[in-house]
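cron nightly-structures :: item 1 of 1
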Amino acid sequence: MCEFCTQHGEGKIWYLQMKNYSEELLHADLSTQQRGVVGATTRFEWANRFWQGLIMPAITGVTEPEVAGFAPEPAAPPTQDEQVAQRKVEHFGQVLPIEDVEQVIDMVDSITRMPCGCRFVTTGKTDKRYCFGFGLDKWGILGKYPAAASSLEVLDKTEAKQYFRKFDQEGLIHSIWTGITPYVVGMCNCDHDCWAYKDYIEMRGAPNFFRAEYVCQVDWDQCTGCKECMSQCQFGAQFYSSALGKVYIDPGRCFGCGVCRAECANDAIRLIPRQSVPEVAEVW
């Protein structure tokens, strides 16, 4: 399992633990180390600044000036290892399949669909609502920013699941994100236009999310070689054998998102625990 499961899930999947969504965690004082990384005293303070700095621009179309209070940029740029260490403290994600998405939705009691800050950065568009925030009512966001109300959709669990299933069919990668780990602030649906994906996968930058707790595997007895699933893979993990007329998924490249299954008419692709595949059990 990923290191967050060990550190924040007692050996279970960390994002399926209710304590990581708690209001107590939201308002708890941060440690000295956490404060040094994020420049805030509580997750609640960080959440409001995150909203102002990333989400409000996506709603208004106006880039906000630098939000005061965050840790200043160091004189020397951090190494990739330092970047990853800082991201894991402040705002880090993990890929998860639709089954786990729906488990998370069943756990939370406040879901708000909102414009995607990443896509505003990469495309300048303010109407792309691929992000789902948790607990915005606890943050005070819904009442604090009335001008943003028209860009926010407060959803029930059924509505949220319907959106995620739609995005799954479209081949979008589901991801879950912390707001000062291990507190969970929401889930997103990522592709080429998502800055987190673009920076890490396309530009080969420092990782900003873990692979899923699973990998995908093709059942060759069921695979007809139609290749429809290959159009769904955002990680270049699928390959076609013309000699065998079958698709193969490289576990070393697979992030375990599972969206390739949506295009398989024969249910030939299944998710298996990453830990059950020795060659990638520790590849995150």
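cron nightly-structures :: done
The mean pLDDT is 91.
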